[in-house]
Amino acid sequence: MDNLVHLLAKPIAERIAAGEVIERPASVVKELLENAIDAHATAISVEIRDGGNALIRVGDNGDGMTRADATLAVERFATSKISTDADLRAIKTLGFRGEALPSIAAMAQIEILTRAKQDIEGTRLRIENGEKRLETAGAPLGTHVIARNLFYNAPARRKFLKSPFRETELIQKTIAQYALAYPPIAFRLIVDGRENLVLPAATPLERIGAVWGREVAGELIAVEYASVDLIVRGFVTRPSLARASREWQIFFVNGRPIRAGLLAVMIERPYAGRLPPGRHPLAALHIELDPQLVDVNVHPRKAEVRFYQERAIYGAAQQAVAQALREFPPTYFGTSETDWAFDQLAVGNSQFASAAEARAEYLTGNWRALSQVHNTYLLAQTPDGMVIVDQHAAQEQVFFERLTSADRRPPTTDGDQRSVISNPIQVMPREAELLSAHLDTYAALGIALEPFGANTFRVNALPEFARIPANELLTALLAEHERHRALAGDALRAKLAAKCACVCALKAGDALSLEQQQTLLDELVRIYSPATCPHGRPAFVALSLTELERRFLRR
Fold first, then answer.
1. What is the C-alpha separation between 494 and 482, in angstroms, rounded?
2. CA dist., res. 484 & res. 502, Å (int)
């Protein structure tokens, strides 16, 4: 059988943007995942130790390589994925440069164990300090690549790595990204000998539920759009679920994860009037088009692409989301008529800094508490009708917005954070790792934690609205954190904020005085927020006077 791997001709190699920069363990995992997917794997296993510094093992059940191909694959510009200039203009694979394995081999001690379908015996190739050792070996179908002691020969680069815990999180995030792109492929991650992530083959919606959570999956709506030479498909969230950042928006072009860029702006335009300012929908969208219409050879890490018909593609993405949102009419959030009216009010009254502030003032005091129903729902009169408010969901949303608003300053003990005196709280070693690596995230939520011995922490401050014991709150947050270990940054903060808001909020059955009811209503309208709690449940149901008159046959 002819060899599949070959060295690119010099004119083709010279046209390839320099790339495959191995910056950290997650870079190695990314390149090996792409190779496995290109090899038609249906199951991919990743094992790491010490955040990937000591060991990275990526195995797949794909096509595998012959001995000749394996030997050549570690040479620069050796690839089986393109051959001609025409191939470079219409790339259909994730990899194409022929630089991944040589780049990894330059920074780690690597071992490749592989067997092609037509071969009886496998091949083991070891490389260290540029020296190769080749031998026959028993091997399953597919390819296993082991990289040990990353940057052993470049100690200066090691200094720029983060803690093993943080590097592990970046690897988890990388795997999750490709898992969302390829639901039919099973993914597995083992961290320091423990199974950390298991994602069997699934439907796209099932995979999102496994990675982002069932609550998110329940709030998704399908996007399906097709034109002559373009398909946009995937999922976006209903207006009832949004986040303070775009971290939960991912885009794929012909199966390749890319940075959002202008695509994020375009898909958010249909949400005008459906989401308040500063809130962003969640999205997992695939764009499929002729490979000749997209240039993937423009970024060293292949994280960006260039569209040859940019306006048409961005327009299609916007139209695809607009079609998906047809069943969700705009609310008063951001609609042109109400924005204009409140803009005029803001202009005519110097006490208002913006239309949003004018709107909030118009609604504070204009939602008048009338009574509490079954110690669970609040009944209130509004300027144009009435609302029934779920007291738990409403206060949960109020607390969530306090914790996550984009312009929120770090908490201070004289404002939205209160000092507490708590006994030292002991946690499990695995939980201690989480807390130690994310003290800043907890601090951003108003929870000041101080290490106080082995697996022990002292709580020095809590959000001012937290009226439950510190150990109960921390236990609830750690359980939520454990469920979402792969998250970091704003995505993790949103999950923890939602849990914190939920456990601190009023419960069904809590009796409220009329004054307390009014205070909650005033807080709800003041936050200028979607009419839902962070888990997607309605915070209130509105009935207009027109609707009431229609139901009572007055119209």
1. 14
2. 17
Please give the Cα distance from 348 to 345 (Å, whole number).
5
Q: How far apart (Å, rounded) are the C-alpha atoms in residues 82 and 102?
A: 17
Task: Name the residue ranges covered by the structural domains of the chain.
Answer: 6-201, 206-324, 364-542
Q: How far apart are CA 296 and CA 257, in angstroms?
A: 11
Of 219, 519, 192, nearest to 369 by C-alpha is 519
Closest CA to 16 of 300, 304, 257: 300
Domain 6-201 top-level CATH class: alpha beta
Question: Tokens 């992530």 appear where?
Answer: 197
- Separation of alpha carbons 247 and 489, rounded Å: 8
Q: What is the pLDDT of residue 241?
A: 84
- Which residues, in sequence order, are CB contacts of 282 under 8 Å at separation 6+? 212, 216, 219, 220, 236, 237, 241, 242, 243, 248, 249
Give 326-335 pLDDT, tens digit per residue: 888 765 443 3
Write the CB contacts of 300 (distance below 8 Å, at least 6 apart in sequence): 17, 18, 19, 20, 21
Say whether pLDDT at 294 is over 50: yes
Structure tokens at 20: 């495959």
CATH, domain 364-542, list 3.40.50.150, 3.60.120.10, 3.40.50.300, 3.30.1370.100: 3.30.1370.100
